[in-house]
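for the writeup, i need someone to sanity check this before i put it in the appendix. the sequnce is what the collaborator sent (i think, or maybe the updated version? ugh). structure was predicted straight from it, no edits. if anything looks off just tell me and ill rerun, i have time this weekend
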Amino acid sequence: MRRALLIVVLVLAVMPAGGALAQAGCAYRLFVSGYFSGVHVYDACTGAYLRDLDPLPRIRGAQAVRLGPDGLLYVVSELSQQILRYRNDTLAFVDMFAGLPPGSNPTAVAFAPNGDVYVSGFETDEVRRYSAAGVYLDSPVPARTAGLNGPDNGMTFAPDGNLYIPSFNNSALYRHDPRTGDTTRVTPAGTPGLVRTRGILPERGTSALLITAEGSGTLLRYDPATGTTGVVRSGLATPTGIDYAPNGDLLIASTDRVVRLDPATGADRGTLVTVGSGGLDGSVFVAVVPIAGSVPAQVSVVEFHHAGLDHYFISSLAADIQAIDSGALRGWVRTGRAFNAWSGTAAGTNPVCRFYLPPANGDSHFYSASPAECEAVRARFPTFVHEAADVFHIALPDVSSGACPVGTVVVYRLWNGRTDSNHRYTTSAAIKAEMLARGYVAEGYGPDGAIMCAAP
């Protein structure tokens, strides 16, 4: 039966030709925080200066800018001890989300999978936790835990569900597990190139983290699986904030400009924002944010593994993720892998259907972004439970060449070929090769076997 399904997968899918996702102009803004000049807004595709987010002095000592799960922009104003919120469509000021005790000097804001909001206090050497309504809950990382000294603006949650904290003053990286409450230093003293840790960015297609070290002018890669840290690029001028451009380039704030780098090698790809554009002074953070209404919000499709079953599962649904992270569904753990998709219809994308395969067929799930394949599976295998027609939206590769639209990331689908049928979905070519070596079968299009094309 499974071989028949594979034939359906490879023959019946109907796909659009590869090409750039359609959009009018640039659908993303680039926010750059100037510690002395406020938050500046640029076209994320061209680097053209658009406006300041808010006139001084409401934002004083601008730090992290993040798009929250409520669709609002959260801006850290270090010197006023506040987290401010702005609309993402008009950029109008909304309110003060939270005020911190005097002398805290907040730098970072990060959003946990369960909706809690984490805020770092640079001077108090702690991480505070707030409810989605802005109510202070506790300090899950108390002052100076494990030597934490100067938690900085790059603090973020990674696909493994852990909170990673750059510790500026002692040039270190820390990991906090919100499920256990444990906080540990994960980089030893004297790690080559890690001097004045500043920005953190989960690397696409891997479980690694990209880190900027302001004091050494270095871009590093930290691998949580092995605990190793390596240099990607040196010789940068005071690198601070880091994010991905709409086209997949790395963007790094570097001495009052924003430079482009090759995401794999760190090689120069030019300058996006020129020195001092729009009055930028003291660049410390960058954030690429989709303009509200121009494209649907992106969602993270998180991967889990059950060692006992040797099954993989992916989901972008908050209820699924919370059930696994809380331990309600025993045996499942995050692999640290994820890819991005869209929450709704975006130009050039399709809805992704999800089927549950009952125990007799594998006790697992099957996903497809081809409407024809979804219908064919439903008709051919009536015992499969059609759970949803649109768990997320994603682009499709060209049916002949397997080429993904420009600016998207190839997703591979691999079948275990066993009676307990299960698929693994990954953006990693290395994982694809590993699974093929284990006897898995690639299901996809073109010589590379692409099955979907993830959001950047």
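Residues 1-24 have pLDDT under 50 and may be disordered. Helices lie at 2-12, 318-325, 371-380, 429-437.
thx in advance!!
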